Amino acid sequence: MAENKKSFIAYADWKETFDALDNEKAGELIKHIFAYVNDENPISEDMLINAVFANIKHTLKRDLKKWEKQHEQRKKAGRKSAEVRQRNSTVVNGRSVSSTDSVSVSVNVNDIYRSFAHLSMSVEHFEKLQQDYTKQQIDDTLDAIENFKNNKKYKSLYLTCKNWLKKEQTKHELETNKGFKAPWN
């Protein structure tokens, strides 16, 4: 087996094989399997153990090849991800910062329209929302977001508010159109 592989799969349909053996032979077989998956190259003098193990061995080899292929793919994906992070990193205060690192940014308090917990919305973003929505709609939505217990997962109050307002608008339009009947009906 591969040196950094720590486990193997035992299949439920092997039960019939073990049930057909007496307890002593079943114990020998399981010890033989563990010796094999730990690269001990077991050799049994017992023809029965060798015959029964032959089918199990093919399954273990097939699974190992599959695992090695997945392991190699994951290593390549990890390397590629590291290269992308390195390419996308920037230098801040003399150190390299990737997009997954947090960087603190100073914001003038007078530019903030609303903030709570870890979220805040600038006056500029509020004014963008006011192009499509009323102040009351925006404030009601911000209140709802603030009271939403899972708001910790949100990263941008502006984008969250914009999405919630769109959903509410769509919902309202659907409710309004339910009662609509075409003149030709």
Average of pLDDT: 84
Number of strands: 4
The helix/strand class is mainly alpha
Q: What Rg, in angstroms, do the CA atoms define?
A: 32 Å
- Along the chain, the helix and strand elements come as HHHEEEEHHH
Spans of at least 5 consecutive residues with low confidence:
none
* Percent strand: 5-15%
General shape = elongated
Fraction in helix: 55-70%
Q: Provide the domain count.
A: 2
Structural account:
The chain has 185 residues and is mainly α. The protein contains six helices and four strands; from the N terminus they run H-H-H-E-E-E-E-H-H-H. It has helices at residues 15-20, 23-37, 47-88, 123-130, 135-147, 157-178, and strands spanning 90-92, 95-97, 112-116, 119-122. A two-stranded antiparallel sheet has the order 1-2. The protein has a two-stranded antiparallel ribbon with strand order 3-4. Helix 5 crosses helix 6 (157-178). It is elongated. The N and C termini lie far apart (72 Å).
Question: Which structural traits does this protein have?
Answer:
single chain; 185 residues; mainly alpha; two-stranded antiparallel sheet; 57% helix; 8% strand
Provide a compact summary of the structure.
With 185 residues, this protein is mainly alpha-helical. It is 57% helix and 8% strand.
Q: How are the SSEs placed, and which strands pair?
A:
Blueprint: H1 15-20, H2 23-37, H3 47-88, E1 90-92, E2 95-97, E3 112-116, E4 119-122, H4 123-130, H5 135-147, H6 157-178
Helix pairs in contact: 2-3, 5-6
